[in-house]
Amino acid sequence: MSTLVTGIAELVTNDPSVGEGPLGVLTDAAIVVADGAVAWVGPGSAAPAADRRIDVGGRAVLPGFVDSHAHLVFAGDRAAEFEARMSGARYDGGGIGTTVAATRAASDEVLRGRLRGLVAEMRAQGTTTVEIKSGYGLTVEDEARALRLAAEVTPETTFLGAHVVPAEYAGRTDDYVALVTGPMLEACAPHARWIDVFCEPASAHAFDGDATRTVLTAGRAAGLDLRVHANQLSAGPGVRLAVELGAASADHCTHLTEADVDALAGGSTVATLLPGVEFSTRSPYPDARRLLAAGVTVALATDCNPGSCFTSSMAFCVALAVREMRMTPTEAVWAATAGGAAALRRPDVGHLRPGARADLAVLDAPSYRHLAYRPGVPIVRALDVPDR
Amino acid sequence: MSTLVTGIAELVTNDPSVGEGPLGVLTDAAIVVADGAVAWVGPGSAAPAADRRIDVGGRAVLPGFVDSHAHLVFAGDRAAEFEARMSGARYDGGGIGTTVAATRAASDEVLRGRLRGLVAEMRAQGTTTVEIKSGYGLTVEDEARALRLAAEVTPETTFLGAHVVPAEYAGRTDDYVALVTGPMLEACAPHARWIDVFCEPASAHAFDGDATRTVLTAGRAAGLDLRVHANQLSAGPGVRLAVELGAASADHCTHLTEADVDALAGGSTVATLLPGVEFSTRSPYPDARRLLAAGVTVALATDCNPGSCFTSSMAFCVALAVREMRMTPTEAVWAATAGGAAALRRPDVGHLRPGARADLAVLDAPSYRHLAYRPGVPIVRALDVPDR
């Protein structure tokens, strides 16, 4: 069964060979979807026949957002911590323990309900691929449970046992790392594609370079690919480790030395920026222009989580990237789609070339520029194209 | 016909005599609506009977947002100007001429469609009262048309003939002021409650203190109440004029002297802050804390318009107020509801005391704090309570 989508005022393909600029923009375009994949894109006047037709009435269409960094398996609420932080309390990752306690105490049904609610909320805002991390269980059973639940809704599951050192291991980081790389990894690897570490020597709760290397190396040996929470609160070793070990992405990249930027520019690791975190922790934003000038591949993601950033809106992150990081609307939209796909090493999403997954987002607006031009307004949603 | 709304995890009444703090918060509350007005508020366990029942399932309910500053009668699109500004072009109000040309050229049907679309978009985001200005017509006929259209959707209509000096009056500001205070005012006053002036000596396009006084005085003589675009781009005379003339609100207040703050503190004029404008023009934010410390009544509004700020989201303005202006979530929510009502001198909205209009907003969240805690996420909508 094929579907022809017409009335597309502006189609972002992310394929520069078929349209204008880096986003490969076609105007007055159409797209044909068949069997869940893009079968054809081109001018509306040249559209082939299809079994069914959806007219979007002069709206812009783009690849669904690829949110490559989110923490969606949790219970509890940290609105009070947020309020205290806005009154001056500093963010150092310590509040994660609050969510760990609530998550451990929650039933599968509660966790599944919250998780599915957030994934649906994201889809209603145009996100069609989302990576989901564990990291609020921090026991063998609770981490494995989080990943089992995450795997019900996405293939992009990330084992983040090394999120923080849980309270019961305070002062015994080595013992906790042994747990993470031993029985916890064994229980979690079957449910995960990725392994991740919160590498942050500046936080008493997170992991230093040595521990990060130990965890990532063990994860790789268990068949997982690598990503790293790197350089969020200080210019630690995370980014260089990520590049050295061939991680798909170094996430945050808020505090970078010249050596960090050089490493990213010389490697294949994507720099994933999470400006919602800087918004919600009132911190300085990463220097996106410096990374772009160095030729680094930049992705944008939400980091949706109950502590440091509880937004699920990629559009909001695009608006912040333009306002606060001086990315152009073009760069920001690319980073939120193709950039996210690069950070997840997913050649099938983040663009609309024939063969891509038929993950479309539609705007209540004539141009992708409106994602930054209309901040906070819910103008983007995933377009449901029925498959049969 | 009466309706009982139950399952309210947190009810913001803005009546400190019935609940906690300045927002008068009740937990596990209920509310009865009858004949379009609030008939009763109190604990859910004490709720009286009613003809019908709506259960909001553990959500927070607050008074619908009162957006006291918006420009919604226009045609055209200025996404390209926005993009240029984000690349470094400065905002000085000059782009308004683009919208004036498009608006004059548009049919009533086009303008009405855009206007109603934006009002519906606002309502879908929790705004139940909106002020709407003219100011993109700038001829007798086009200004009167804008106000006729605005009056179809709100009683809060504002004649803003003195928005900018139109191109055909360039260098002849006095002649244009004579038009505004003469035939234009005569044609517009029957459709308007308010008169407003963009008082900004720093802009070549706007009006100085003398012209502002002339227009406001004429407007008052024609039976209109006063509001002023004041001190947006520089510390001009707008705020002090607003207070001297007893305007309901001085809007923007971005650049204030001590004398301006003293004037506001000693008068009855509300300071309406529009942080979406500073977001979308990449400008420094107003100093809300200084105003609050001086005892000034502060409102938040969107300034929704196609040039300097095309957001329609009061929730986004609340999040900005907290992040960028260091208002507490409590202060920001008050300013977006009761503050807006004060800026429009509307005792019937912005609170949920018995007798208030039954304008309710409901959150997909348990607390009003989530408006700032979940930036960019569309968690708030107006609650439809059928009247009969």
Structure write-up:
The structure is a homodimer of 388-residue chains. Chain A is α/β, with parallel strands linked by helices and 388 residues long. The first copy, chain A, has 2 domains: 2-63 and 351-383, Urease, subunit C, domain 1, CATH 2.30.40; 65-343, TIM Barrel (Alpha-Beta Barrel). Chain A is built from 13 helices and 15 strands. In chain A, the strands form 3 sheets. Chain A has a 7-stranded parallel β-sheet with strand order 7-8-9-10-11-12-13. A 6-stranded mixed β-sheet of chain A has the order 3-2-1-4-14-15, with no helix packed on it. In chain A, strands 5-6 form a two-stranded parallel sheet. The longest helix of chain A is centred in the first third of the chain and has 16 residues, at 108-123. Chain A is globular and about 65 Å long.
Strand/helix succession of chain A: EEEEEHHHEEHEHEHEHEHEHHEHHEHE
Strand order of the largest sheet of chain A: 7-8-9-10-11-12-13
Whole-angstrom Rg of chain A: 20 Å
Shape of chain A: globular
Number of domains of chain A: 2
SSE class of chain A:
alpha/beta
Distance between the termini of chain A: 6 Å
CATH topology of the largest domain in chain A: TIM Barrel
Count of separate DSSP helical elements of chain A: 13
Low-confidence stretches of chain A are: none
Top CATH class of the largest domain in chain A? Alpha Beta
